[in-house]
Amino acid sequence: MTKSIFDDPSDEQLAQDFVDLSLKQYDSEFEEDGVEDYTRLYHAIQAIAAVLRSRGVSARRALIPLLRHPNARVRINAIHQLLAIVPEQAMAALEEIARGPRNRERLDAGQTLRFLADGTYKPT
């Protein structure tokens, strides 16, 4: 069977899938049995990120607009993929979330900032 152009989603479609899954992940935080869904969605988001990474820096740039998304979970997920590509923009978004309302995303942002500062986390 030959491969068609419809077999591979565009970078923009992958970015939209990244948003959709991130929003579902955010919603799962509030469900009674949300841990399993949250984890499953995390792995799906990481799979999209791996495809974009395999396509190179220009493909990962499709996530840059997500740094301004209204949902903090979308932003934090995008930040982790963009810290090595657009560090200034990603850090500004990360610091904004860390100053935001107390929630899981603020906790994630604060932890990421600490791990960046002590060298535990090195963006790639």
Describe this structure in words.
This protein is mainly alpha-helical. It has one domain: Alpha Horseshoe (Serine Threonine Protein Phosphatase 5, Tetratricopeptide repeat), CATH 1.25.40. The chain has six helices and no strands. The protein has helices at residues 11-28, 34-55, 57-60, 72-82, 87-98, 104-118. Helix 1 runs antiparallel to helix 2 and helix 5 (87-98) packs across helix 6 (104-118). The longest helix is centred in the middle third of the chain and has 22 residues, at 34-55. The protein is globular, with a radius of gyration of 15 Å.
The H-and-E topology, N to C, reads as: HHHHHH
**Mean pLDDT across all residues, rounded?**
93
CATH homologous superfamily title: Phosphatidylinositol 3-kinase, accessory domain (PIK)
In whole angstroms, the N-to-C terminal distance is: 36 Å
Radius of gyration: 15 Å
CATH architecture: Alpha Horseshoe
Number of helices: 6
**How many beta-strand runs?**
0
**What is the percent of helical residues?**
55-70%
Instruction: Summarize the biggest pleated sheet.
Output: none
Overall geometry comes to globular
